[in-house]
Structure formats: C-alpha cells, structure tokens
Amino acid sequence: MQFIDLNAQYRALQAEIDANIRSVLSSAQFIGGPFVRELEERLAAYVGRKHCISCANGTDALQVACMAAGVGPGDAVFCTDVTMVASVEPAKMLGASIVFCDIDPHTYNLSPDSLERQILAVQSEGKLHPKVVIAVDIFGNPCDYHAISHICETYDLLLIEDAAQSFGASYHGKRCGSFGTIATTSFFPAKPLGCYGDGGALFVDDDELEKLLRSLCVHGKGPGGKYDNVRVGLNSRLDAIQAAVLLPKLKALDEYELAARQTAARRYNDAFAGRLVTPFVAERCVSAYAQYVLLAKDAGQRDRIIASLEEKNIPNMVYYPTPQHALPVFQNEPRYGETFLNADDYCARTFSLPMHPYLETQEQQQVIDAVLEAAI
Ligand SMILES: *Cc1c(COP(=O)(O)O)cnc(C)c1O
Question: Under 8 Å CB-to-CB from 19, ≥6 apart: which residues?
Fold first, then answer.
C-alpha cells in the first residue's frame, strides 16, 4: 500500500503522459514553449484568475510573491503556526520578521482572532511594519477568507494565499488559488496536482503585477527582454516536460480525482466518527484532501495507533510534529505573548492516513480496521 499512489495514477494516465513527453523530446524545446503556455492558460481558467505564471517550485513562487510585495527588513509577515517551513522561509530570507498566529481548533487553519491580536500587538509596539499575511490552506482545506480578507483590508495588509496543498479545493464557490492579491501553488509530486519533479505557479488578476512576477522569475528582465535587466530576480521556471505531465493530470483532477478524494474522505469520516476527531470542512467549502488528518485523544493514543500501523506496514505520517513557533530556526521571531495552545495541541495528537484518488475500498478498509483496533 502507498501513502500517495503515484504509480496507480501513472497507470491511469500513461498513454497521454508518455505521448506528451515524447512530443517535448522531439520538439527539443525544453524551456517554455507551447505546453507551458497551454498549462498556464488552463490553470488560470480552472482557478478563476486572469493570470497564471509558472515557476520552478512552490517555495520560489512564495519568494517571488514576497519580492513583488516588497517584503524586507523591518516588515512583519503574519502566518499560521501549523504549516511547512516553506510558507515563511522566503519572507525570512528577505529579512522580514515572522509573526506566527495560532490556528483555528477545527479547521487547523490560521485563526482570524489570533491574526488580529498579533497585528494589533505589532502596531502598538511600533517597531515593525505590518506588511503581509500568508494564509495557507492546510491539508487542502480552505482558510476562512471572509474573515481574513476583511482583516487584511482593515489593517492594509497584502494577502498571499499559499495554495500549495489546496489545488482543486474551493471556498464559497471560488477555487483556492483565487484568494489574496497573489496566490501560489506547488506541483511537488505528492501535492493534489503534482508533476514528475519540482514545479510551482503564481496566480494574480492584475496585469502590472503579472508583468512584475514574470520579470522576477526571469532575472529581473525589463521591457527589452531577458538581457534588459531592470531589477534583481531569480531564475525560476517550469520545464516543458513538467507542463506536459501536468496537462493530463489537471484534466484527471477536474474530471474524477477530486471527486474520488471526497469519496475516500467520506469513507474514513464514517468509519472514525465518534472515535477520533475527523477533519472539519466548513459549510460551502470543498477540501482537496492533500492529507487525511485525524486527531487522537492524546499523544499516547496517537503514538499507539502509529506503532500499530507500522507493525502492519500501513503507511502513515505526522503533519506536522512541531509547530513553526517551536522550530529552532524561528526562536528569535517576535511573539508578543501570544500562546499557541491550539497549534501545540494539534501537533501532539495528529496523524495522517493514506489518501489519494486511487485508494481502493479494500485497501482503505485495511487502514480503517488497523486504526480502530488500536484506537482504544
Ligand atoms: C509543499 C509546500 C510548499 C512548497 O512547495 P515546493 O514546491 O516543495 O517548494 C509551500 N507551502 C506549503 C504549505 C507546502 O505544503
């Protein structure tokens, strides 16, 4: 059994993927070209944004977004405490201070209340300039964009949506990747839409911003092209082969993969209801279920369940064992006395089960039986 079965997906899409890769090989156009252009158009249309700018990975996408936002020393960048380090690493690298916020205890996403407290704390201290909020749709579950957008408007902060885990998800009828001034995603193989290597993208509606992001991705190119360098940028682009792989995968995600994830999640939810804390997806939201996350009653029960899964060779993961505020790299970030009780509690009790669109009923039943047997 696989935690995420990329082989099963390849078997389903092999003919199209192979034909597309062969087409790139015979064209010998490995950077840019028709596959990259078509992919950007399809991604923008799917997400519901005017522009998609592909790049080398999700971390670069966030770095380019932060560069475009002018993030630098003296700025406060607000982010959820439960995420992967890549959400804030670029802002930190650009010299900003990271102000972590606690999570909502139900969705495990950025808590709007904690966000507002932290913004007010930064304001009243008066040392840092509140600049950007990075909202992460954790495990594919969309953030509370109504509340978060309102806070960003009230305090004049730029919102960046980190949709690395939520491609395909939606909030009140709008797809993830369409929130904030800039949204970013990742095509790392294990994400809901993954390629066969590294890849990423940015989504925006503003034409000027699109030009700036494209410039930042290509060595700060100016109107005169790539040897007319007008600012410091990166070399960050999506290979043609990755675009060729992503096109059939995007179609499959839209046609049946997202639905298959919902079916698998429902089966888990039904089996674990009343025994373990199952994922909460708010009304009018659809999760991409990048991960299927459960909470045990305490760390001891979590560890017993994991040990039992290990014994039966059932793949499992802990996303994430440590909240960001407790990581060694962030020990000098400002705290303002905020507690991270929900994040601490979440990290102590969480574990994740195999979840992908090709999970068979019988395999899933094995996982369910093993978890229930150990969840005493
Ligand atoms: C995977 C991930 C990223 C980074 O994406 P890469 O393509 O691996 O650089 C950023 N944020 C979150 C929440 C992620 O899960």
Answer: none
- Residues 176, 145 contacting (CB under 8 angstroms): no
DSSP conformation class of 354: -
Q: Going along 163-311, which residue ranges are E strands?
A: 170-171, 174-175, 182-186, 200-204, 221-222, 225-229, 285-286, 292-295
Residue 336, Ramachandran bin (φ over 0: left; ψ between -120 and 50: alpha; else beta): left
120 CA from centroid of ligand 1 (Å)? 29
The segments of the chain whose pLDDT lies below 70 read none
pLDDT value of residue 210: 98
What are the Cα distances from residue 286, in Å, to 58, 140, 189? Answer: 22, 9, 21
The residues lining ligand 1, judged by C-beta closer than 6 Å to any ligand atom, are: 57-59, 83-84, 86-87, 136, 162, 164-165, 186, 188, 198, 200
CA 186 to ligand 1: nearest atom? 7
Q: Contact, 183 vs 164, CB < 8 A? A: no
For residue 21, the model assigns a pLDDT of 98
Structure confidence at residue 376 (pLDDT): 85
Nearest atom in ligand 1 to 62's CA: 10
Rg (CA), the chain: 21
373 C-alpha vs ligand 1 centroid, how far in Å? 34
Residue 75: both structure tokens together: 């700025």
Asked if 162 contacts 136 with a C-beta cutoff of 8 angstroms, the reply is: yes
